[in-house]
Sequence to fold (290 residues):
Amino acid sequence: MQLKIDYETNKIKTKVEMAIDRLKTFEPKGGYYLAFSGGKDSITIYHLAKMAGVKFDAHYAWTTVDPPEMLYFIKENYPKVEIIMPKESMWKLIERKKMPPTRRMRYCCQVLKEEGGIGRFVITGVRHAESAARSKRKDVEFDSYGSQAKKAIAKREKFNLMNDNDSKRMMIESCVVKGKNILNPIIDWEDKEVWEFIRVNKLKYCSLYDEGWSRVGCIGCPMAGDDRLNQFKRYPKYYFNYLKAFERMLKNRKGLETKWKTGEEVMEWWLEMNSKEFAIFHDQMIKINN
Fold:
């Protein structure tokens, strides 16, 4: 795929070229493991990797709570992406963990999305602009301090000479995911730059973005904020599957201190609603589902 150069500003052109340099500089012998979600960021890194001419294989971790449209989109437009089936569903995971996933306790991501790529150099679409936590992430994250890290430090020196010697743009840190080296080639891209890349290169993307979705992730994800309510209205089956999972979770919590007595009480807490708000919303969900 040939690099398009007719971007609106030189800033995005420079970022595209820098991302490609990153991909070329750190290319491992066995090729990259590209973590593909089907969202706008993973579409971007997928095509940047093709532009860079680096070897990679792409993998989509199906979480069991992804929007159906996303799975259809990937199967139709990215047939070479491997779809990884989970060892357990989100519902079973909640039951086993005895706690709903929250913004601070995102065990679901760790189990359902991030277990792939152990022992590989992983490409992700992580960007600073996505969240406060991700604003602390680095361009390149090396696991541990072994031989891989030593080789990478040498590459870092080469990379810094080519691009940026600013001490604020440190390239190395220890990766929090044991057994992986991680490259985040678009770490410093803004949303508008991702969309400009997609538009200029005429790349297909999931239709949910055109319906107003700002992020296309797991249905009911706490990171989606108030968008969760609209997601549940669109996919009521998922709402009631969460309720059933919460009921089973409570049975597993016997002996543990808890203020919840029913799945509905867990859902009310999880959606950060008061009793009156939740009663209205729950009635709406029952009507939608019937």
Q: What stands out?
A: The radius of gyration is 21 Å. The chain has eleven helices and six strands.
